[in-house]
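Two proteins were folded this term; both appear here.
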Amino acid sequence: MSGIDRELTLETRTSFSDKHFPRAQKSETEWEFAEIWADTLISPPYILMLVKEKSGKFCIHNPAQNYKVIFTSDDYESAKMWLLEDEYERLNSRILQEV
């Protein structure tokens, strides 16, 4: 079956949050948005998530390491520059936290 023929299942925002943020941290980690960044120079691309927490912190999570925080910053520009230094590219959409 080719990739075009496969059925796609979209996660709800609630299931995304439950799946990707451990319950122990979920109550502590209120977030506003998440961006997906990819290192497209390798195949398959390596993925990281940039998450803005409601506390104002910007954290970079590694999905390959059970969403471990690998970088934290007080501002978006610093987090973005950290990703750009390693040639990550932001994918076009942003995931917003439901209110």
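Next, the second protein.
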Amino acid sequence: MLPDYELVQTMEIEAIVGNALRTATRLKVGCPYWATVYALLKLRNLKLQNS
């Protein structure tokens, strides 16, 4: 993800953060930090896609 971020490209957050977050949700493990990181990265990707 870091190389994509540095090159101002969209990142593969679904494969890296999204799957881990969905697994944690399924197992009923709280991950508020990762949920916040996921939301912020998703917003960044949307911004890049719309520009």
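DSSP finds three helices and no strands in the chain. The chain has a mean pLDDT of 87. These notes refer to the second protein only.
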